[in-house]
């Protein structure tokens, strides 16, 4: 018997295929864990289940009824509900109203607030959530908002409950409460899909584990008959273990040095040096503080501690000073923070160099053109018309422009956050070649990547962060499983 | 989508805000009280202080004549402010209400000049407002255009349309058959209370009921509070948006009936810049610029505040030309205060 049946789900974003024909069945009263690296397609698959995204092919059947693609009301009627990573609530309304959003208890068209609060209290009591129905969501803690989001789905009679990395930002105590709620729902016959990067949670909660890799469902295993090492092998793919993507370079002088740096969720003071020609990797799950390190160095975040570039102290909270000192930064989200999508390739490529020039200096078309042709040559940038909007380029070529804007001069150190996210294999290889050339010329690189293969293949040393603390340093060619365990923080 | 204006503070820093849960339970008692008090507390306190000050210092202020004057002047801004409050709850503003007001009085004039019965003219005027509002709403919700662009364009279009039939000249209506109905609504009296005030207060009560005790009202809050959550909960977001713009238009139409009655004519020139005053009053009353939260009580206090402030300027003998300076400054101040308050509440 199956509650949910997904068949042949295909989804493409521009040139990138996110899902390549995924089949997944879920039985009533079953908790299935969905795991995979970032970008493997987990969230996309769940958004298609929820009707938030329309697939290019394939069908979703719930309770024997095929659901029209992208039809949210049909999902609601069929009892499909998703808890996303961030709670989806109206902060200015109270808990009770968020539970029955837009559908309060009424009689003859008039909202009965007493009955609505009572119904909300019943749902909260049933789930064992100690919240007042009349409390304003704005006044709740982040953890309590997550529980409210879950309760909102229970209030709607959800029979297929999806938790999409809900535990990523929950404290341990609340993870326990959430698990208790999920188990109680499972016992009432609800199908649950649980997505988490923490494998210990997956093994604790789930009956079966489905593994996605590059948009394909590569394995579905019974939890009691497998172990973490097997799942990690499924996730990262067998072939990769310890494959170098970059040849080591003899390190030179210290280029970038951190001394007792803390910022945001980065709790442990962080101290290390990156030498000329060296690549240091930062590993960790989403929310571990890995991006925080780069943002703090580049001056995008308040920090404590000392940072020096070539022995000179770097002014905190001043990206302009960081650029002047020879740092370059490639942000994680290139559409949001890296590029002006409607502006030309040329304009996007010259942001960094024009940012360092005085306001009264004349813009020079020939100098801009020289930079673009330099990038074409050096990065194999495929941009037939440098005046065309950059959104017309493929993801890989867009990413080359983000990286390339720092290559007008010779950067002293580059801070790369997910430099190959969402780009195809060919462009990936080209970016690895550029990084190889840059390190040979003496640039120091600090690299954040969710792809274990990329991280370990490129880095000379790797530091693993979890919940804002250092959980270990690894040299070249470590066992991928050891690093994954340090990242996920299982008992093993 | 169409949040050219709304984006200002709503979600400006998604990537940088992850790391700081903020020190909870460490803020002072006063700060907590400020954050927990209803958003219109500030304007309420200032209003009371102002009224007491005027009562003590200006002997003319507490006379029936003066207060009745203030009250009459209040009815039309209050009707418009009710509509603006509903719109702001969804995070939107209609900049075209002044032009719409003028165009609606011209519709009334057209009907009466054509010899239609007064009640037909009255309904036509109100419905015209509803249609004009619905057009704005449809362009925004269905075509996905920014509310700023659509209503700014409509401001110019509706104003021109009002001027076209008579080449910009007002139409005297006092001699038209049945205009007595308009005069009574816009300028009449029931005992000591003026009729437009009664109309505005009844409308306010109805709006309060709809927003508080119907699922339509609650859906308006949901759409403004979190559009995505509303959509995922099966709320017909587009329909709600169009409905709110239409209701706003109907209220402008009703205000136009009162206006025509008061000035005894249909005029293509009235209402210029009135949107500024109305929005200032609504924001002053603690309705947030970002949507999802609003207060009709606050709006009423805001309208009262601006009316009393202008009355005070009059009584003290400040030139009427200073009106814009005061209203504009109050508008900016109101938004600033809202920001500070939200900043406190957010942590």
UniProtKB/TrEMBL annotation, chain A:
Gene3D superfamilies in the cross-refs: P-loop containing nucleotide triphosphate hydrolases (3.40.50.300)
PANTHER family assigned to the protein according to its UniProt record, in alphabetical order: CARBOHYDRATE TRANSPORT ATP-BINDING PROTEIN MG119-RELATED (PTHR43790), GALACTOFURANOSE TRANSPORTER ATP-BINDING PROTEIN YTFR (PTHR43790:SF9)
Keywords, ordered alphabetically: ATP-binding, Nucleotide-binding, Repeat, Transport
Name assigned to this protein: Ribose transport system ATP-binding protein/rhamnose transport system ATP-binding protein
SMART domains, per database record: AAA
Domain ABC transporter: 4-239, 249-492
Domain of life according to the entry: Bacteria
Organism: Asanoa ishikariensis
UniProt-recorded Gene Ontology molecular function terms: ATP binding; ATP hydrolysis activity
TrEMBL record, chain B:
Keywords: Cell membrane, Membrane, Transmembrane, Transmembrane helix
Membrane topology, record value: Multi-pass membrane protein
Top-level lineage group: Bacteria
GO terms for cellular component: plasma membrane
Pfam family for this entry, one: BPD_transp_2
GO molecular function, one term: transmembrane transporter activity
Stretches that traverse the bilayer: 40-62, 74-93, 99-127, 139-158, 190-211, 242-263, 296-314, 320-337
Subcellular location per the Swiss-Prot or TrEMBL entry: Cell membrane
Name of the featured protein: Ribose transport system permease protein
